[in-house]
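Posting for a labmate who doesn't have an account.
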Amino acid sequence: MRAGLVLATALVAGIAPVALGGAAAVAAPAVNRAEAAVEPGTVVQDGGPAKVWAGEEGPGIIRFRANVPAGVTGPVTATLGFGKPVSTWPAAGEPYRIAAGLRTTASVNGSAPVPVSWYPARDDDQEPIDVVLPAVEARSTLDYAVTLDLSSSSDWFGSFYLSVTLRDAQGHVVSQGKADVDVVLGTPEAALRGAVHARDKDGVLWRYEATGATDGRLTPRKRVGGGWGVYTAIVPFGARTTADGQGDLVARDKDGVLWFYKGSGDPDAPFKPRVRVDDGWNTYTAIAASGYGLVARDKDGVLWNLPRGDATTFWPRVRIGGGWNAYTRITGYADGLVARDAAGVLWKYNARTVAWSPSTPFDARAKVGGGWNVYNTLVGTEDLGRWNGLDLLARTTGGELYAYQGKASGFGHVPTTRTRVGWGWGIYNIVI
């Protein structure tokens, strides 16, 4: 009994026991604090919610400090969870697609930034993807600078948070919290911004590009080249003309020959040398781009569909229907056409998505509105501002240029709110 009491007293006092009879007992292992769970420290964000532009502005920086409890040693690793509920994602927003669009770097305590990658990690509706930041040696505070570079298509993120969790080498949570992020639509990429060409009375073709500014302003004009006065019609063709130098044209000369200009991808020299398509195009009084090639109206008011083959060929023309002489202007817009009648009413023709055929490429027309006789030019373009839609450019008889912001509606994209983007455009006899 007494020996047991001595042993118990020694254990309570934290003294290594000695076996009776003088033989040494096995010492109890010391507790390693790094292996024990600790009360986690907190994560504090610097400066409130981080502002990140979705567009060409470059990466935004999210700064936060992790406080680590005393006694934690060895490497610690931070994991960020993307706190955006799946229920708020667009239909095509699978985790792997979202992860690929989050271009991210991380720096800890002033180290050189290193790229890190997001991965699908969870299937709940709070944090479906996460990223692991580089491991660093524990210290009382760790300062993180995480950059996030988003494309303009990611502006739907809006406001969200990043959960922050630091773990030691044994997986114990040693610090946790969150960082808030506000995503704001910035300047759309050049491939998403429209470009406009205009020919002056001397036959010189000029180029204007959208800047992506909220007011829709264009860049100063750049000279493309002379000699364009030989054409009686110039029409955008296929992919829309964009600020990155993409977009094709077709042009009809005075002899009725149609020529094809392929976009070069170079905004400073946007077209490759012309290629002859064929002749006989003087039979048409109007030519416009469509979602499938060109449409052309003849002198009798019949509209013909000319589906595109390869770059410089068309399938045999197919009759769409008569009565198109009722329109004083026909132009390609979005996936179809807009057409203005003699009374100044603008009509929208959407490309058919059900039961399409060469002879019925469009749905029944839908009325956009009246008062469009104040314009002598209408041109469909890519986005000219930060409005996230296809736009319609309209020039008044006084030379003022307006961009109508395209908005989705019950019958496709329609032009709505107008913004003045230029004046003095009366010097041009063709705007495309």
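Reply:
Got it, the structure tokens are right above this. The two ends are 105 Å apart (CA to CA).
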